[in-house]
């Protein structure tokens, strides 16, 4: 089993700047996002990463490619690292969602674990998928240190699980673009902590 799993949120996009729910769209990073990643890549060298896994969504792959310019590994795709499927909210700003889905928006901001919309993953469904992905990339590996490039929702549900928080804390967890977290499988109490 991998001893250390470093988890990074993809670089900044125009949707992030405008608070638009990007979901599964294949948006590229903005220039600012790419520049920031070069600084992160220089620091990640010290983690001695042996394998890199990425969400199949373009902004995550692009992030992995920038980081990999410092590591020179093969980027492997893990479909379970893909962003939350958000269905009818994809491409809408937070303001537009609040206007078009007022009842759902209220639930999302008060009890997000209870939100259930056709075509959208629930937080519980997302967490199960993501845990399967993390177990898939960390089990039966000779590599001790791996990097997973993914998205805000994925990191939030992992933090909730490993830090023994409640799913309804989801909206309270800040996960900046390019932030790097560590899941140490050798620690007595598994937790996810931010390291960059």
What is the topology?
Layout: E1 4-9, H1 14-18, H2 31-44, E2 51-54, H3 58-71, E3 75-77, H4 94-100, H5 102-110, H6 123-138, E4 145-150, H7 152-162, E5 180-184, E6 192-194
Parallel strand pairs: 1-4, 2-3, 2-4
Antiparallel strand pairs: 1-5, 5-6
Helix pairs in contact: 2-3, 4-5, 6-7
Please identify which CATH superfamily we are dealing with.
Answer: Phosphoglycerate mutase-like
Task: Tell me the domain tally.
Answer: 1
Helix content: 25-40%
Structural class: alpha/beta
Count of alpha and pi helical runs: 7
Low-confidence stretches: none
Backbone CA Rg: 16 Å
CATH hierarchy class name? Alpha Beta
Global mean pLDDT: 96
Tell me about this structure.
The protein is an alpha/beta fold. The protein is built from seven helices and six strands; from the N terminus they run βααβαβαααβαββ. It has one domain: Phosphoglycerate mutase-like (Rossmann fold, 3-Layer(aba) Sandwich). 39% of the residues lie in helices and 14% in strands. Helix 2 packs across helix 3, helix 4 packs across helix 5 and helix 6 crosses helix 7.
Search tags:
6-stranded mixed sheet, globular, alpha/beta, Rossmann fold, 196 residues
């Amino acid at each position: 089993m991998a001893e250390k799993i470093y988890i990074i949120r993809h670089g900044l996009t125009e949707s992030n700047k405008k608070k638009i729910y990007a979901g599964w769209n294949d948006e590229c990073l903005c220039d600012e996002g790419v520049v920031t990643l070069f600084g992160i890549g220089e620091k990640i060298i010290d983690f001695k990463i042996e394998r890199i896994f990425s969400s199949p969504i373009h902004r995550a792959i692009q992030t992995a490619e920038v980081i990999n310019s410092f590591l020179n590994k093969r980027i492997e795709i893990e479909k379970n690292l893909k962003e939350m499927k958000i269905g009818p909210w994809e491409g809408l700003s937070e303001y537009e969602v609040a206007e078009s889905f007022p009842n759902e928006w209220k639930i999302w901001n008060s009890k997000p674990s209870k939100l259930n919309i056709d075509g959208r993953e629930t937080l519980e469904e997302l967490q199960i998928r993501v845990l399967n992905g993390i177990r898939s990339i960390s089990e039966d590996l000779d590599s001790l240190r791996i990097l997973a490039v993914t998205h805000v929702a994925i990191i939030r549900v992992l933090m909730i699980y490993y830090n023994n928080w409640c799913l309804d804390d989801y909206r309270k967890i800040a996960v900046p673009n390019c932030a790097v977290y560590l899941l140490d499988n050798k620690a007595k109490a598994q937790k996810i902590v931010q390291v960059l």
